[in-house]
């Protein structure tokens, strides 16, 4: 067995096994074991856009698969009964909903068969496009992403914006008819444009729940120091670690582990579909730098009243090791 270093189209070097080196380059079997590919070292390896795993026996990081699909229109049917309310009336009631992620979106929207929408849908005067929106786009690592701070009416897929009218209420550009055969006859809906949403009989907060997104809370005995501009703001010997798909681990500490007088309550709140309503805390010169959940949803019940700081804006020192600040939609822009 031989091993060769093979560059991909992005300049990353991969170690490939079962490589036969010849005067013309390296012969690399693909994953089926057939049709070997000759990689010419003079030409620089694979061409741009080619995937090294098509020709090399290499593993793939799951995060890379997720991030690699961000540029595509993605959808997933769900079996929950979905209801949406306007002006005290149920205007969406469907057992055939799908979740749809437009390109760059990291949070899905409900996509409902048109016959399950009890409202008038008319072409909107607002046909905003991504190009004309003048957006400051957040990032996840090195990738630009559209999180819920990017308005629904900014679309990255082809289609037609629609206004919703029902029971004397009008919501402009709150629906979108996608030009996609797989989603024909369905309408994408703006979660924020409705007064309330229910999945079965449970209220849904913030945005539709993603079946591929999860949170996990783990008790720890690691020593955690939280520092801001060199100043100690929290010190804990028993943080709770909250792991959430595609996001940095969050360290939740007891309120008494925060240095007295450092934080003051903020008027800011936010909603999370998995954890509930968060209340925020500020420091002098740093607004909304930490948060806590006074009444979390059941999945996050263990972090009730504990305080977490934005890893993106403070320094975390865990068992003496200083962590790098991650790049996420909550990083300073």
Description:
The protein has 333 residues and is mainly beta. It folds into three domains: 3-60, no CATH class; 74-203, Domain of unknown function (DUF427) (Metal Binding Protein, Guanine Nucleotide Exchange Factor, Chain A), CATH 2.170.150.40; 215-322, Beta Complex (Metal Binding Protein, Guanine Nucleotide Exchange Factor, Chain A), CATH 2.170.150. Helix content is 2%, strand content 41%. The strands form seven sheets. A seven-stranded antiparallel sheet has the order 6-9-10-16-15-14-11, with no helix packed on it. Strands 19-22-23-27-26-25-24 form a seven-stranded antiparallel sheet, with no helix packed on it. It is elongated and about 55 Å long.
DSSP strand count: 29
* CATH class annotation of the largest domain: Mainly Beta
Q: In CATH, what is the homologous superfamily of the largest domain? A: Domain of unknown function (DUF427)
Helix content estimate: under 10%
Main beta sheet strand tally, sense and closure: 7 strands, antiparallel
User: Average pLDDT, to the nearest integer?
Assistant: 86
Structural class determined from secondary elements: mainly beta
Short description:
With 333 residues, this protein is mostly beta strands. The protein is built from one helix and 29 strands.
